[in-house]
Amino acid sequence: MTTNRHDGSAVVKPSLRKPAFVKVESLKPGTYGHTVSVKVLQSNAVLSKKPRGQSVDGPQNRSSKIAECLVGDETGTILFTARNDQVELMKPGNTVILRNARIDMFKGTVRLAVDKWGRIEVAEPASFVVKEDNNLSLVQYELVLVDESRN
């Protein structure tokens, strides 16, 4: 793709690449940049805080909402942590596309999350049946320190 500058020279812009969708079962701890199409099975509010007062303005005075949502595809399920505006999109029965999602660790288990660099889009209802007996968030991970001085 090329565009012309005011001085007549051409600038080559990189073309956008197609997103590579991954399946839930392939998600691993500590990874990021995932694009996943999932169905929302459950949504449970964990935190709902109102602003402290109207006299102070800033990020510390905004209302906060956090919900844990069980999402999945035909390969498995995982807990998704929805924050603030994301909570409204994560209604049970919705099919959503999570772009630039990452895997966070919480109390030794994996959680899927989308931060400010990612995006959540409500999509057309998917035709797949969710495999509910493979919940990746039920697997406990343990941090193991490796002593590299032995080598």
- Helix amount, in percent? under 10%
Q: Outline the biggest β-sheet.
A: 5 strands, mixed, barrel
Number of helices: 1
Dominant shape? globular
Task: Give average pLDDT, whole number.
Answer: 83
Category by helix and strand content: mainly beta
Task: Give me the strand/helix succession.
Answer: EEEEEHEEE
Sheet-strand content, in percent, reads 35-45%
Strand order of the largest sheet: 3-4-5-7-6
User: What value does the Rg take, in angstroms?
Assistant: 20 Å
**What distance separates the N and C termini?**
51 Å
Q: Please mark out the parts with pLDDT under 50 across 5 or more consecutive residues, or reply none.
A: none
Outline the structure in words.
The strands form 2 sheets. Strands 3-4-5-7-6 form a 5-stranded mixed barrel. The protein contains 1 helix and 8 strands, in the order E-E-E-E-E-H-E-E-E. The protein is mainly β. The model has no long low-confidence stretch (mean pLDDT 83). A hairpin with a 5-residue loop joins strand 1 (2-4) and strand 2.
Kindly summarize this structure in a few lines:
The protein has one helix spanning 86-89; strands spanning 2-4, 10-12, 32-49, 64-73, 76-83, 95-106, 109-113, 119-123.
Based on the model shown, name its key terms.
151 residues; mainly beta; 5-stranded mixed β-barrel; two-stranded antiparallel ribbon; globular
Topology record:
Elements: E1 2-4, E2 10-12, E3 32-49, E4 64-73, E5 76-83, H1 86-89, E6 95-106, E7 109-113, E8 119-123
Parallel strand pairs: 5-7
Antiparallel strand pairs: 1-2, 3-4, 3-6, 4-5, 6-7, 6-8
